[in-house]
Amino acid sequence: MIVQDGLSRATGWKLPTVLDSMIARHELPVIIGIFVDHGKVASAGKDDYPRYNRSFEYDALGDRYAKFLMEELLPEVSKSYNISKNPNDRSIAGASSGAIAAFNAAWERPDQFRRVLSTIGTYVGLRGGDELATLVRKSEPKPIRVFLADGTNDLNIYAGDWWTANQGMLTALTWAGYEVNHAWGDGGHDSKHAVTILSDALNWLWKDYPTPVQTHKSPWRRMDPLVENESWKELNINQAKANRLAVNASGEVFFTDNKEIYKIDLSGNVTLFHKVKGLCGGLSFNRDGRLYVADAKHDRIVAIGEKGSLQEIVKNVNADFLTVTSKGIYFTDRVRDQIGFYSFERKLLKYTPLPDHPSGLAVSAEKRFLTISVANSIFGYSLKIADDGNLELLQEYVHYHVPYGTTTPDALGMTVDTENLLYTSTNMGIQLSDQLGRVNYIFSNPAEGAGDVKFGGADLKTLYVVHNGKLFSRKIAAKGVLSWMDAVKPPKPGL
């Protein structure tokens, strides 16, 4: 059991005595308490205060503090004590800023910590903690059990109201389906209330042990794309490094690796499809069965037939991602910050400038709008597709969440389902936004970073995503729409 704010917090809670008594009565398993204080940087001046790192370490979101516990503290303690590496055997606790540090460590790394005790938690706007309740509601559920405690006379200052913030965390966790319990009182920002409820809180956190803490589904989500017992699976792609993705009419997935294009058939077999003489960029199938590929070395887009025949379609273009429709080819040009459209009917190329560096793109289910992801902005852009295929009415539209400590979501690949929901691969996860550009759900990333994402499989109900050269898949409760397919009329969006 890790406790923030060190021995002073543990003794203030009378925790050593409570643990000894409960362990002796077999109410808890044998627990090793690790009471860790925040860091300090000494000042050179004799009478000056040091630089206190408590807020820096505890109030901040992101995985930095969890990494400190995992990579520095626990390995050091493990030199002297036999500490379980099973996350179900670990609890983490704190008060005030130490409480949000405890919750955030489990939130970021549920593979390491599962049981959280949070008293008078600082879920307010000091270093982004006020966003946690929103992320709890939107993110894929995690196997965490949480006990919250607070009082009506807790702090109410420039950063927020602790009492209402803790109630907000309770409602968010409850709505999202988590195992959460609470003890409310009329106390202030101190440990008095925690002492009175500590044994009950610990009993609840460790109930039914050693049964593992489970992930639970929310009964209230309007949008729930998860399929029970389905998680990310890494595919064996035979030492290849996946980059861009495309899917054919059968649902077979194709991916690029530098100069080579590979095919994954519906049985999972990986074979070399084509070797490009240049350098592969974006790619997309068309309804004619050919694979359209950007050749980054020769600044062109070519079409490859099933037997390897190659036709040059467009010259003098730089295409990072591309998607093909019945009207023509849309592609992102990151070098010149623009979107290209090549019309099949008129054999003409037209560009639309963007204020940011475009990366991925996706056509809406009804084929009337094109959404663009950009690498250096929190927004995704929407453009209307005119009857002749040209783009107009550029607008900042999708608003993405950004991981703590970064300035952009690093949005890359995009794809769309039959409900006209947009899936965007970002460094926070695959962010799922509705037709109004609002992120409703965030899939956990199977690995760090962002990459391309597409629906594939025979029924187009499997998500495929690339991360750092690795390819992952996952069955979900949605069906994809490919850009070159016929238009699909989605349901009316909720405003």
The counted number of beta strands is 35
Global Rg? 26 Å
Proportion in β-strands: 25-35%
Low-confidence stretches: none
Globally, the shape reads: elongated
Average pLDDT, rounded to a whole number, is: 96
Number of helices: 8
Backbone structural class = alpha+beta
Distance between the termini: 45 Å
The largest β sheet comes out as: 6 strands, parallel
Strand order in space, largest sheet: 2-1-5-6-7-10
Specify the helix fraction band: 10-25%
Molecular structure report:
This protein has 495 residues and is an alpha+beta fold. Helices cover 17% and strands 33% of the residues. It has 8 helices and 35 strands. The chain has a 6-stranded parallel beta sheet with strand order 2-1-5-6-7-10, sandwiched between helices. Helix 6 packs parallel to helix 7. The chain is elongated, with a radius of gyration of 26 Å. The two termini are 45 Å apart.
Which features does this protein show?
single chain, 495 residues, alpha+beta, six-stranded parallel sheet, 8 helices, 17% helix, 33% strand, elongated
